[in-house]
Amino acid sequence: MDEILRRIKKFIPKNLFDALAPIYHFGLAFLGALIYRFPSKHIAIIAVTGTKGKSSTSEMLNAVFEADEYKTALLNTIRFKIGGNSKPNTRKMTVPGRFFVQKFIRQAVDQKCDLVILELSSEAAKQFRHKFIDLDALIFTNLSPEHIESHGSFEKYKQAKLSIAKALSKSSKPRTVLVVNEEDKESPAFLKFKVTETYSFSIKNAGLYTMDDDGVSFTFRNLTIKSPLRGLFNLYNMLGAATCASAFGVPAEKIKKGLENLSIIKGRVEFVKLENKKQDFDVVVDYAHTSGSLSELYKTFEGKKKICVLGNTGGGRDKWKRPEMAKVADEYCDEVILTNEDPYDEDPKKIIEDMLPGFVKRKVTIIMNRREAIHEAIKRAKKGDAVLITGKGTDPYIMGADGEKQPWSDEKVAREELEKILTL
User: Fold this and answer.
1) Can you give the pTM of this predicted structure?
2) 3-state SS assignment for residue 123
3) Domains of the chain, each with CATH number or no CATH
4) What is the pLDDT of residue 22?
């Protein structure tokens, strides 16, 4: 279906396509809900939205509810899970369309899940994929410039996010819960929507928190929680998940258990380490693909020499952020290797050229072959260093022109190249 639509789009004037697209997507959303008998009316639905931290927060929320013996369904950028059955999300989109979400929720209902956790993106909202889903709760993580070229402006991007909060306020559910990061400057816009219960979270809720190479330690509901996950950004994500779970009656002891047992989130500060090999440096794969997420990741490894592998996305996706991300790498990284990421229909070398003005202090290395770039970064690493590979996370493909898909896994490739180097 997507291939057919892509070909049809080439022959339709852009103005006409843009005018018809909302009608088309709204119709699909309604038809999907109708075919699967409006399943969200029969199960609790918790959504997570924001620019950063959506997938991580949804995984944390899932872990906490599972610790309290809920049977959960989870749909996010990383995976699709219903009960004990989980499979990777290989769709290259957070929220697949063409009836996928409604079918997913119906399956969760039929398999007697207690609740569904959905990661909802601005693109999903723009295409009405959140329509006809009766939400019980929404977690708002943060908002910063992203997908500007797709939406047309930051204000339109923001409105797409706010439409999800609006959907919560119009939900038919008797109880609607909004959980908001009160430190984000856009939080007042979300708080304007009328819901039955509103909760906020901030770093103040973490008590005397600490962060080190072993993870994050903080206080929630008078209990000390020690998570193996790294970074201040993950602390915020945990606070959002914990606040929402607490609003649903999950005891503090179960919140602690769930967060402490969650040792890895695929593609999010994911450490690649070989067993039975002498590896005295870090290799990390992370989805970071904005200047904000890059800086937060790099700051997490403060004090280490950072060898950074990064690129940027083509296809008309936020060209403005290419030099901005380069500036962040220029500030925090000790060595930088620029490489191919997802060029789509753009010249991969042109994407890299767009990044170069952002580098002032660092002399960068350009290796267009992503595997070779990862190999070179790992080869350069010495004891105590950190190799940080960003931009793709769990993305299953490198996207080329005309819909070409090259199967890919940063984690797998990093592991393979690490094996080669450590066995030399």
Assistant:
1) 0.92
2) helix
3) 2-261 (3.40.1190.10), 270-422 (3.90.190.20)
4) 75
